[in-house]
């Protein structure tokens, strides 16, 4: 969008060619006298483009010479001359026919290098220089404190005043729309204008405060680059209106030129960085990310060339501006291409970005046409370009807010999912604990409790000999030890994992008809407590499953260490199971899965009915 500030150069060339072609086929207009402007209510606050004579010169003229040239000038009704290397002269006669003795002439371009105004009561009087100001002059040198050049016209002693004005803005495009105001209307309108400007920049300030706070709280770079871009736009408009010379650097506006150049670089660079983060180019469009990154490097190199080789830069200003225009056009093209591609990811964010672009483009085009007089401006206070900037920032802020809203919604959904999984895991843990408690209680009641009750009755009736009672008590102690091993892995605190599984196999073998074998190879000695406890529990669950359901005659357990994983296998030659049937996936199998997942591992079950079951647990060691 930055290219639109220079589009007027191209349109100027076309405009001059059209005028030249038209002038070649018509008769040259005859000289005419200076126009007179009657100051009354009808003229109050109007643009003077249809009344004021204009002319140019390559050298500075005296007021008399300028008045004579203006008297014969055929040009009237022009206030835009495009790129110029000349001095511009304006002249008219003001005829006072109103109740107000004080009127104001306002030149609505605060960036003219030199502004001079001479007046004389009539042709018998000498010209008097009443205003000599400009961009390079201190702001306090102006007789009226105003962001534009406003000059008073006093009709207390005369009803007719000749006025000659000279404008100098050689080396760049020049425009000088002029309005004439009565004192009462001028003061009223200016109060309104400052209120509107306060609201205008107040909106910018609120947006910048919100963006700055969002960056401080989130530390997301998209907020930082958007803050820089919006701030540079706000300062650019503040300077473009003329308020910067009034409030930021009243001593001289020469810094304004440097500020506009610097702001152009900052705007282009921050805009590209903003689009890169706004559309997540690095993740979604890596090629476009590289291209936009190259554009950013081009902006930095161009700015460095301007700062380090200023004189050489000015000698080749046309080439350097062409390079800058190419960089700006590439920024616009890449941003639009990315925006249209981003529609499939987030249509609302993309459409808001495209709408902001479209609005600033249309506003800039209308502004340029308006300065040529080909299209009416939208009122006096804010130009279409300034309105376009404000709407662009508002639309981009809405797009960024929508993007943040979608991110927060995704976070909320993710948090809800995490909470759901936690609740599900907690429920499964509680259910497993309750089932384990029930199983332990059943074992205590059905096995140990019944046997102790039976032993008590026999001892009361002296049915068994002492040796038999001792044997029965030893059997009960064995059952109690077996039950305690199920609750806590044997030697969990003092033995390593192979020793724990070996103790599990030995204790189970004492009361089992199944032939167990255990083998451990290359097991790392520095396993974490989590891995030791969970694998011991998985082995215990696997042995319990063999004892209860397998009807096997033999079983084998292997614990083998590899460079990057630890593998536990449990095999039996029993009846096996159909692992595709969900009804066979009981709490034991589910517990093994959960314990393996808890330490980042995976468990697989391989079985064919009547051909045994193989359980393999793989735990990563990295």
Q: Can you characterise this structure?
A:
By secondary structure, the protein is of the alpha+beta class. The protein has 16 helices and 16 strands. It has helices at 7-24, 63-71, 183-218, 221-241, 243-247, 254-278, 281-284, 286-308, 310-315, 317-342, 347-371, 384-461, 466-487, 497-510, 529-550, 587-598; strands spanning 36-39, 53-57, 80-84, 87-96, 102-107, 114-120, 128-133, 149-154, 160-168, 172-175, 178-182, 515-521, 554-561, 565-572, 602-607, 613-620. The strands form four sheets. Strands 1, 2, 4, 6, 7 and 9 form a six-stranded mixed β-sheet that branches. A five-stranded mixed β-sheet has the order 12-13-14-16-15. Strand 6 (114-120) and strand 7 (128-133) form a beta hairpin. Helix 12 packs antiparallel against helix 13. The protein is rod-shaped, with a radius of gyration of 45 Å. 30% of the residues are buried. Residues 1-32 have low confidence and may be disordered.
Summarize the structure.
Helices cover 56% and strands 17% of the residues. The protein is α+β, with helices and mostly antiparallel strands and 622 residues long. The strands form four sheets. Strands 1, 2, 4, 6, 7 and 9 form a six-stranded mixed sheet that branches.
């Amino acid at each position: 969008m930055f290219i639109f500030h220079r589009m007027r150069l191209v349109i100027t060339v076309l405009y001059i060619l059209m005028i030249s072609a038209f002038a070649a086929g018509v008769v040259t207009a005859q000289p005419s006298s200076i126009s007179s402007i009657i100051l009354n209510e009808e003229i109050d606050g109007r643009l003077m483009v249809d009344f004021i004579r204009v002319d140019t010169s390559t050298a500075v003229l005296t007021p008399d010479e300028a008045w004579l040239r203006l008297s014969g000038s055929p040009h009237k009704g022009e206030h835009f001359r495009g790129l110029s290397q000349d001095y511009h002269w304006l002249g008219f006669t003001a005829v006072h026919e109103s109740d107000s003795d004080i009127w104001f002439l306002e030149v609505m371009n605060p960036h003219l290098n030199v502004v001079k105004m001479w007046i004389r009561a009539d042709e018998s009087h000498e010209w008097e220089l009443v205003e000599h100001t400009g961009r390079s002059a201190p702001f306090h040198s102006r007789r009226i404190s105003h962001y534009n050049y406003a000059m008073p016209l006093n009709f207390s002693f005369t009803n007719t005043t000749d006025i000659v004005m000279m404008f100098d803005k050689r080396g760049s495009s020049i425009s000088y729309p002029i309005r004439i105001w009565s004192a009462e209307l001028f003061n009223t309108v200016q109060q309104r204008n400052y209120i509107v400007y306060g609201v205008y920049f107040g909106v910018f300030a609120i947006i910048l405060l919100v963006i700055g706070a969002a960056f401080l709280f989130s530390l997301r770079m998209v907020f930082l680059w958007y803050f820089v871009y919006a701030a540079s736009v706000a300062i650019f408009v503040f300077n473009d209106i003329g308020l910067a010379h009034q409030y930021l650097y009243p001593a001289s506006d020469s810094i304004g030129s440097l500020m506009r150049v610097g702001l152009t670089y900052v705007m282009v660079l921050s805009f590209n960085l903003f689009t890169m983060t706004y559309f997540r180019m690095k993740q979604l469009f890596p090629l476009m990310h590289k291209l936009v990154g190259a554009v950013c490097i081009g902006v930095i190199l161009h700015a460095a060339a301007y700062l380090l080789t200023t004189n050489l830069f000015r000698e080749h200003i046309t080439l350097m501006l062409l390079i800058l225009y190419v960089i700006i056009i590439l920024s616009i093209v890449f941003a639009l291409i990315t925006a249209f591609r981003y529609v499939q990811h987030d249509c609302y964010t993309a459409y808001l970005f495209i709408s902001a672009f479209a609005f600033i483009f249309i506003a800039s085009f209308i502004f340029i046409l308006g300065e040529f007089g080909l299209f009416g401006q939208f009122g006096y206070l804010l130009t279409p370009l300034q309105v376009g900037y404000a709407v662009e920032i508002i639309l981009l802020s809405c797009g960024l807010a929508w993007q943040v809203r979608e991110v927060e919604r995704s976070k909320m959904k993710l948090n809800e999912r995490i909470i759901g999984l936690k609740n599900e895991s907690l429920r499964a843990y509680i259910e497993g604990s309750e089932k384990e408690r029930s199983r332990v209680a059943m074992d205590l009641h059905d096995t140990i409790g019944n046997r102790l009750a039976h032993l008590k009755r026999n001892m009361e009736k002296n049915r068994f000999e002492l040796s038999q009672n001792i044997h029965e008590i030893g059997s009960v102690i064995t059952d109690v030890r077996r039950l305690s091993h199920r609750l806590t892995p044997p030697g969990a605190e003092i033995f390593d994992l192979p020793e724990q599984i070996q103790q599990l196999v030995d204790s189970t073998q004492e009361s089992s008809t199944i032939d167990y074998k255990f083998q451990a190879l290359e097991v790392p000695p520095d396993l974490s407590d989590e891995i030791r406890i969970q694998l011991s529990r998985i082995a215990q669950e696997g042995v319990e499953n063999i004892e209860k359901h397998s009807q096997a005659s033999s079983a084998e357990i292997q614990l083998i260490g590899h460079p990057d994983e630890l593998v536990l296998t449990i095999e039996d030659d029993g009846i096996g199971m159909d692992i595709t049937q969900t009804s066979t996936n009981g709490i034991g199998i589910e517990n093994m899965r959960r314990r393996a997942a808890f330490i980042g591992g995976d468990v697989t079950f391989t079985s064919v009915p009547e051909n045994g079951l193989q359980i393999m647990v793989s735990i990563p060691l990295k």
